[in-house]
Amino acid sequence: MNEKVMRNQRKKQTIIFSVIIIVLTYLSANITGFNILHGIATLPEAIVWIFSNLYITQESLEKLPTILEKLIETILMSIAATTTATVVSIFLGLMGSKTTGTNGVMGVFARFIASVSRNIPVVAWALILLLSFGQNSVTGYLALFVGSVGFLTRAFIESIDEASLSAVEALRATGATYFQIVYKAVIPQCLPQMISWILFMIETNIRNATLVGILTGTGIGFSFDLYYKTLNYNAVALVTFSIVIAVIMIELISNHIRKVIL
Asked: Which residues are CB-contacts of 134 (< 8 A; sequence separation ≥ 6)?
C-alpha cells in the first residue's frame, strides 16, 4: 500500500514538474519573441549556409601561421592562469576544508571567495576587468585566473574532505606539525584527484579563452572576431577547425594522464 501511494506521489510530482517546465518554456519564448517552429523550419537553410561558406581554401591556409601563433598564445595563457590559480586554490582549499581548516573565519572566507568566483561567469569577469585593465592579455589572464580559483577551490575542498582521517589522526597522535600533516597525509591522498581537476580546468579555460579573447582582443578569439567582422568566412572556418583540433588533442592528453595517475 505504501509503495502504491509513493508511486502515485512520484507520478503527481513528475506531472507537476513537467507542467511547470512547459509553462516556463512558453512564457520565455513568448517574452523573448522566439518562435520554436520558425527556428526548426530555418534549420536546414542554416546548415546549407554553413557548408556553403565555412570551408577552408588555399587562400585561408596562408593565414595558418598567424592563426597557430594566436592559438598557442591562447593555450599558454590558459595553462598559466590555471597553474597560478592552483597555487592560490590549494591554500584556500586547506583553509576551507573541515579536515585541515584551523580557523572558522578563514574557512568561511575561503568558501565565500570560491562561491563568488565560481558563480560569476568568466565572460562576466572579463567585462568587469575590461573596464579597469582595457583590451590586453592581462585582462584575459585575470578573467581566467579568477574563474579558475573559484572552481578549483571548491573542487580541492571536496577532495580534502573526502580524504581518510586515519592518517591525519595518526600523525597528530605523534605530535606532527600542521604542515607535516598536510604534506605527509592530506596531499598524497588528494593529489590524483587534484591533478585531474587541474587538467579539466585547463581544458575548460582553453574553451573559455576563445570567448574571453573576443572581448579582450587577444589570442585566437581576437583572430576569430577579426575574420568574422571582415566577412572572411573561410578564415573563420580555419580558426574554428584549429580550435576544435587543439581542444581534442588537449582532452586526449588529459585523459591519458588521468588513466596513468588514477
From this structure: none
Give the cell for residue 76: 599558454
Task: Give the cell for residue 73.
Answer: 598564445
| Residue 262 confidence (pLDDT) | 65
In this structure, are 126 and 179 located in the same domain? yes
Question: pTM for the complete prediction?
Answer: 0.79
Question: Predicted confidence band at 145 (pLDDT cuts at 50, 70, 90)?
Answer: very high
- Round to whole Å and give the CA distance between 158 and 118: 15
Say how far apart CA 130 and CA 28 lie, in whole Å: 31
Per the structure, the count of domains in the chain is 2
Give the CA angle between residues 114, 116, 122 to the nearest 5°.
Answer: 95
Cell 593529489 locates to 191
- Segment 243-249 shows an average pLDDT of 88
Do residues 158 and 114 touch, judged by C-beta distance below 8 A? no
CA dist., res. 17 & res. 97, Å (int): 36
First to last CA, the chain: 46
**Contact between 79 and 140 (Cβ < 8 Å):** no
Mark whether 213 and 197 lie in a shared domain.
yes
Q: Which residue has the cell 582549499?
A: 93
Cα separation, 20 vs 14, whole angstroms: 10
Q: Are residues 20 and 113 in the same domain?
A: no
pLDDT number for residue 212 = 86
Judge contact between 118 and 151, C-beta under 8 A: yes
d(CA 260, CA 262): 6
The residue type at 129: L
